[in-house]
Amino acid sequence: MVVGIAKIELFIPEPNSLKAKRQVLKALTQKIESRFRKVSLAEVDEHDLWQKAVLGLSVVGKDQKLVDSKINDILTFIQKDGRLEIIKAEIDFINY
């Protein structure tokens, strides 16, 4: 079993309030969770900044290749969203 963990730093240029930022993040997380089953996703840092967010993502699978592929598919999906851009993404794997 392999657990893939990703820390994704995002820049969101349009929000002018925390409420607007959270609306963008909520819509994004709902789309990811509905399209990519069995994924855990949460905002984990930069809660008080309007235009920056840090998401934590985890995926569990039978091997690293499968987990890595799913994480990269999610990153590609996020990049295609025109409302935000990925500043940095760190990926780690834990093997059991």
TrEMBL record:
<dbReference type="InterPro" id="IPR036746">
    <property type="entry name" value="TT1725-like_sf"/>
</dbReference>
<dbReference type="InterPro" id="IPR007546">
    <property type="entry name" value="DUF503"/>
</dbReference>
<protein>
    <recommendedName>
        <fullName>DUF503 domain-containing protein</fullName>
    </recommendedName>
</protein>
<dbReference type="Pfam" id="PF04456">
    <property type="entry name" value="DUF503"/>
</dbReference>
